[in-house]
Specification:
The chain has 319 residues and is an all-alpha fold. 78% of the residues lie in helices and 0% in strands.
């Protein structure tokens, strides 16, 4: 009796190719989004951008929840509601708020690189909560990535670019909040599903951001904004953020997290290339060396001793 074939069918191969193409497309979208946001900030300010974005994002989240619930909001327990509210506060109000201002103060390439350090913080939180034990290679990866960040930041510190350096530090702290969000989200996703959890967190985390950014929004002359700024805002909020998260979730479902996660390391080079083409950002030898060391350390810490289980298992909140 012949054993069943384990070779993928033509349809499965086609689906895998489509998922890879979609994943690479999202890396390009996310890499370009850093420069898009910096352009929008020049006309709308970071606070104005947050105000507009978090009118759009919760609307999308609400429509998604209504779709999942057949026209009504899915029922959740009181404990889950407050857990999701805390996640929304950490993941959106704090993390996205800090990232937005960090990108404004820093540069597109620096922002993408610093945010790529998220898996390091996730790994450290898992160790702190005694969920995982760090292997020797993972400890080495953490040390290498930290050294890379120091080298990378030294370029700005020695040049006296204190605002940009401060922006990078804000982004580094923001990465730690997202790492906590990643770990805290996992049990809820297992119980409620990824789509409801992400939609509820977006919806519940939006109100504080809208409230906090209202003073900045009142300073924006919305009627005088050019069409390109409106397009950039909608691109960052809808295409890069909401739609991007849904596409990446599908990519992970088809290809698996372990095969999709390495694509994230392409985002800083894409962000750097777009910034080089569209702005005055330039790259010194120290900066590029620090970036290479940082990404190598993150990759080592993320994948060492964990076959098939990369640390970063939650889609980005679209920074």
């Amino acid at each position: 009796m012949n054993a069943p074939s384990t070779l993928p069918t033509n349809a499965e191969l086609t689906l895998q190719k489509q998922a890879l193409a979609a994943g690479l497309a999202m890396i390009v979208v996310w890499g370009a989004n850093f420069s898009v946001q910096k352009y929008v900030f020049t006309a709308m300010s970071p606070g104005g951008f947050l105000f507009a974005r978090y009118l759009v994002m919760p609307t999308c989240a609400l429509l998604l929840l209504l779709g999942l619930g057949g026209g009504r909001l899915p029922r959740i327990s009181r404990d889950d509601f407050w857990a999701l509210a805390r996640l929304g506060l950490i993941g959106h109000t704090v993390h996205v708020g800090m990232v937005t201002y960090g990108i404004h103060w820093s540069t597109a390439f620096s922002s993408s690189l610093i945010l790529a350090c998220g898996p390091i913080f996730t790994l450290l939180i898992l160790r702190w909560q005694r969920i995982e034990v760090l292997t020797r290679d993972q400890v080495l990866g953490v040390a290498v990535s930290c050294a890379g960040v120091v080298v990378f930041l030294s370029d700005k510190i020695f040049a006296g670019r204190w605002a940009a350096g401060a922006g990078d530090l804000v982004l580094l702290v923001a990465s730690s909040f997202f790492a906590y969000y990643t770990v805290a989200t996992k049990p809820l996703i297992v119980r409620l599903g990824s789509l409801p959890v992400m939609a509820w967190a977006t919806l519940l985390g939006s109100a504080p951001l809208v409230l906090l950014s209202t003073p900045a929004a009142l300073q924006v002359d919305w009627r005088m904004l050019p069409a390109s700024v409106w397009f950039g805002m909608l691109w960052a909020s809808l295409v890069s953020a909401f739609i991007g998260w849904l596409v990446w979730g599908w990519v992970n479902a088809v290809r698996g997290v372990a095969r999709s996660a390495p694509l994230m390391y392409l985002m800083p080079p894409v962000a750097g290339a777009v910034a080089w083409l569209t702005s005055d950002e330039r790259f010194t030898t120290i900066k590029l060396t620090g970036a290479a060391i940082t990404l190598a350390g993150v990759a080592l810490a993320q994948f060492a001793g964990r076959p098939g289980r990369p640390v970063r298992e939650t889609p980005p909140l679209v920074d």
